[in-house]
Amino acid sequence: MIWDFLHILGMRLLVWSGVSLGLGTWLWLNPALFWKGVGTQAWLWGAIDAVIAGSILARSVRYLRRPLNLAEANREAIKTRQILKINAGLDLLYLVVGAVLMWRAEGNALIVGHGAGIILQGAFLLGFDLLHLLQVPNEYVLPDFHLFDSEIHQPFLWEGSGRGAALLVHGFPGSPAEVRDLAKALHNQGWSVQAVCLPGHGREIHRLFQSRAIEWVEHVQRALTQLKESHFPVLLIGYSLGSGISTVVASREPPDGLVLIAPFWIDEPPALRIAVGIARLFLPFRINPSLDRRMAFPELKMAIDDLLPALDLNSAEFQRELQALRVPLIFIEQFRWLSQWVRHSAPQIRSRILVIQAVEDPIVRRASTQRLIKMLGTQVDYLEVPGGHDINRRSHPGHTQVRAAIVRFAETISKISGAFERIPARVDRGIP
């Protein structure tokens, strides 16, 4: 979270520098000497602030989308507090210098203007530094209730009797348990099946807010690459968030077939993207999502009970943690960044694709999925089933259709792949 904090701080300082430069240029053109002095200081301070902001942004951007190192982030937070304290002390000194200039100006309007300009800049920076000093965030690590310790939530690899294999990717904030039933359906047909557990999920749920979209993508890509080395054909199957991740991975490491179940992505127009970027300058760095109010929704309760039957939503310990929960906005940003990545990646995919959409899905809307299908750069088989988002559950009204469709798709890919076997890598025997 500290890198997001520094990035927003740098953007805010850059905005102020732009205001100072514009105001300084306009005031300097004023014939009155006092305003020329104020304008000169505004321009000088604006230029200095722009250099400082650029330095902060250049450093924060290097870390912003990388996997977060908790110890490094905590050290950076301590360092940032120290720097802001020193800056606040310097800001007080600037105020004194400006006041002395105005006092000793002896009627010189230009010097009085310079003093006023220094006071104006020092006062703003003092408020700016103190405000951000109070907001320097510590990383919030989720409590470990040991909810994902049972075997059903662990990643698995079941070797099959055939050559083909399928890699399954669960959704948010789930575990391999979400795709276990679909994996069984393929395994019963002789397919080897592997389910990964995304970083920050399952047993790592305590570091959920420290996980990043790039981690999720690279984790799945590594697993797919390794599976392709020993199996053929290979299917990549994603559910919900796993579908968005699988879309990106398929453009980088093409599978022989791609299945997107309730494909999650945010269809964000460029204008909205700009508006959100501006709004981020004024929003807090973390929010309380008030999930306790949503616990009244029967659908959410049912999903939690199915995935985590050991979790007591009404326990005093859980309710305390829920009230203390603060979600970093930088974590929410991961879904926006992944969605932008999906938009870029979809046209590059050349694998055959099966897309499955639930008609009443309140999370992944049909219109959003239809737009994604139009962007995909290859042949797409499309299936709609009744029901909501939790297609992976046996109790879902469309689950039987989903299982059957995936098995049929796998058979199709197997037949196509049988006709077009992979060409083995050429062994260099010294022939030029």
UniProtKB/TrEMBL annotation:
Per the record, the domain of life is Bacteria
Which regions span the lipid bilayer? 12-30, 42-61, 82-103
User: Which UniProt keywords are listed?
Assistant: Membrane, Transmembrane, Transmembrane helix
Outline the extent of the Serine aminopeptidase S33 domain.
163-379
Ubl conjugation found in the keyword field: no
InterPro entries reported for this sequence: AB_hydrolase_fold (IPR029058), DUF6992 (IPR054261), Hydrolase_4 (IPR022742)
Identify this protein by name.
Answer: Serine aminopeptidase S33 domain-containing protein
Identify the species of origin: Thermanaerothrix daxensis
